[in-house]
Plantacyanin (Triticum turgidum subsp. durum), 125 residues
Amino acid sequence: MAVPVLNFQTSSSSSTSTTPRTAGATTYLVGDAAGWTRNVDYGGWLAGKTFRAGDVLVFKYNSTFHDVAWVSKGGYKKCTVSPKGFAPVYRNGYDAVTLPRGTHYFICGVPGHCSAGMKLAVTVY
């Protein structure tokens, strides 16, 4: 299942998955209650959300089975964590990422998980 890169330009969004972090910034729990795991529709989760520089994505997951790799566009498309050292790979099970402007790509680096849909592409304005 392909997860589209979504471009959000609107300035307001309300969702039970968001909580204010500071004035003007919002914290999003990726996947809501399900968290960062397999069998979650992350394209559906992204729908209707607005992301701005300074917003925070929180990845909550079982670190025995998953991780979060912040990858290049090529890594996202090919489901690979390369080139090594491009960006961080998180393995704590509860990781908060502050988003700068631009398009950012996240995958699970465990073999087979990204190709099964554990991937997220977010464009931040």
